[in-house]
Amino acid sequence: MTTGSTLYINQGEQAQIIEQAQANLPKAARAPRAPRQPLPKHLPREVQEILPTETDCPSCGGDFVRLGEDVSEVLEHVPAHFKVVSIVRPKLACRCCDTIVQAPAPSRPIARGYAGPALLSHVMVSKYLDHLPLYRQSQIYGRQDVDLSDSTLGDWVGGVHILLAPILEALHQHVFTATKIHTDDTPIKVLAPGNGKTKTARLWVYARDDRPAGSTSPPAVWFAYSRDRQGIHPQTHLKGYKGVLQADAFAGYNEVFKSGEILEAACWAHARRKFHDMHVLNATPITTHALNTIGELYAIEQTIRGKLPAERLKVRQKQSAPIVNDLHAWLTAQLTTVSKKSITATAIGYALNQWHALTLFLTDGQVEIDNSAAERALRSVAIGRRNFLFLGSDNGGERAATLYSLLGTAKLNGINPQTYLTHVLTVIADHKVNQISELLPWNVKLEKHAQVESETETA
Fold this sequence. Notes:
Structural class: alpha/beta
Helix content: 40-55%
Order of helices and strands: EEHEEHHHHEEEHEHEHHHHHHHHH
Largest sheet: 5 strands, mixed
Number of helices: 16
């Protein structure tokens, strides 16, 4: 039915038109489906055998003979559960002299606390790696009829923070004995006492990771909390350090470079980002050339990742240095063609002002082209900010720094953070302080503990 120039089609006609149009389209070649990956072998298996309902042949009544079997697997989830461990210590008396003996009570992670190591570890990992605020954890536990208030969980976080302090100090020493470290900082909201508002504090990270330069030294990260972003904080953190510091252009680092004992290595990713942001809004020949040239440097770095410093330096001198020199001359020339107040001039000026620090990687094979090691370490903090919005106090900032340090280092070393922390909380109360480095992630042997944990979950 038509009225004027408007065409009306009922639903049946519309479906028929669409079906005909789809039928006339050329059939696209289906991409081959990727083979399904086998389910992990380390998971416990439960066998369910399903037999036919018939016990005799329905055709002739004869007996069945097993010819073979078809096996398929389904991945299932067993919800986490709580259990109560009753610690029984019998008192034994001597029949002859009435002497009474009893085994000493085992140490607990938190004195007079009823939380076991595995539960404490789960709470810490849930908060600082899985980004579940304590009040949400309390709600989850409540659904299992276990009443754990968020204030109780907060007390546990504080207790674990104190317990891990010696390991954090050993981790700090390991990071700052490196000849090169990466640093960065990120803002974090903290509740200001008294007025119900938040203030902006900072979390600083110092990362040691020389694996891209062929080093076998364990990678590690150390976090520090501060109430603000004043330069005195990195100056305090870096007091006594000698080596290369890879950082952004934050003015607060300038003081630490004055003595000459700490060399500044800048970040090409920061320099590139300024051109990239302009390129996204308005691509120009300047942004295109700058991005392509920096991309060539990164392509060279990809070919030498994991090589020893001497080999990296040789390749950089031969391939990267000419590109960098040409880029410097080109940027200097372009700066005279743009307005001094333009964002293009700002991007070029940033690179030229940082040029000495940006080119340190051409004379030191251990130095990286950018500060990605520190930025990766801060990624977990950035994700967590979306969930917990703010920390409750400065003490909460200190606790966050401790847990981000230990759990982040465990991840860097390919160790399950929850398994590691459970082990540490199991043994640390009785561990000798002068042997605390044995509890650093890369020194802990977790095979036996992981096996016990797996058997417990299976049961």
